[in-house]
Design a protein that fits this description.
The protein has two helices and no strands. The chain is mostly helical. Helices cover 29% and strands 0% of the residues.
Length: 72
């Protein structure tokens, strides 16, 4: 029983087919899921756009240097 088995749930998921081991979701279940997600997510209000900061306001970070390993 595994991904290659056409009779198992994992095998049906991999092959993309439906059957006794993996029945299709009913229309009622789809409707419940859709309504639950719509009610759970409150609508966000759009905030006012922020003013862009000038590029020179932030100092540039110094470059990091690393020592090269040498073979002795």
């Amino acid at each position: 029983m595994g991904r290659g088995d056409k009779k198992s749930k994992k095998g049906k998921i991999r092959s993309g087919s439906y059957g006794v081991s993996r029945p299709r979701p009913s229309l009622l279940a789809k409707a419940k899921a859709a309504s639950a997600t719509n009610e759970a997510k409150p609508k966000k209000e759009k905030a006012a756009p922020k003013a862009a900061k000038p590029a020179a306001a932030k100092p540039a970070a110094a470059k990091k240097t690393t020592k090269k390993k040498t073979e002795e």
